[in-house]
From TrEMBL:
This is Phosphatidylglycerol/phosphatidylinositol transfer protein. Transmembrane segments: none annotated. Keywords: Lipid transport, Signal, Transport. InterPro entries: Ig_E-set (IPR014756), ML_dom (IPR003172), ML_PG-PI_TP (IPR033917), NPC2-like (IPR039670). One of its GO terms (cellular component) is fungal-type vacuole lumen. The lineage of its organism: Eukaryota, Fungi, Dikarya, Ascomycota, Saccharomycotina. One of its GO terms (molecular function) is phosphatidylinositol binding. It comes from Kuraishia capsulata CBS 1993. The keyword Signal applies. It comes from the Eukaryota.
Amino acid sequence: MVAIKDLALSALLMSSALAFPFQNPFKIANLPKPGEKPVPGGSPVSICDSTQPQLLTLKELVMTPNPPERGANLTISGTGFLKETVDDGAYVDVDVSYGYIKLLHQTFDLCEEVSEVDLKCPVKAGAYEITKEVEIPAQVPPGKYVVYARAYTKDDDLIACITGSVEFTPNGVIKFDLDA
Ligand SMILES: *[C@@H]1O[C@H](CO)[C@@H](O)[C@H](O)[C@H]1NC(C)=O
């Protein structure tokens, strides 16, 4: 099974949007897709389905280095506010595509995954500040990845929709673009 921490990483760092500047050399600004809103902090992460109420407000997300690099550690720091307590039974649907290929669609137990950031269910309503260091393997195949992660309570209320895409180029450079 694909480790959720890798996906969580993916979701975070790819909740970005990768760029193909050469497809539109005249593009001046990166415009988000409808329903997507960049998260403050300059990371490539966006909120998706933003017209729907979400229990988590991501206030800021900062990545170092930004953009992330293959074969390096990435530090992700985020602040957010959770409106309602999240109990056992919460889950997260993750979709990853690689180029035009659907690489993965999988559902994970959210309460198992929050242990990665030293939380456990019930995750009480309130303000959170989280820092996580993850290593991005140098062996990640080059290409464009797009990730959607949608987290729900056990009653199917939307906790958060996070999206983004990242392109790992063969030489290890990553480009981001919110218009992915
Ligand atoms: C990433 O961090 C870990 C633990 O802090 C360290 O062992 C590892 O060497 C680091 N990797 C790189 C590429 O800096």
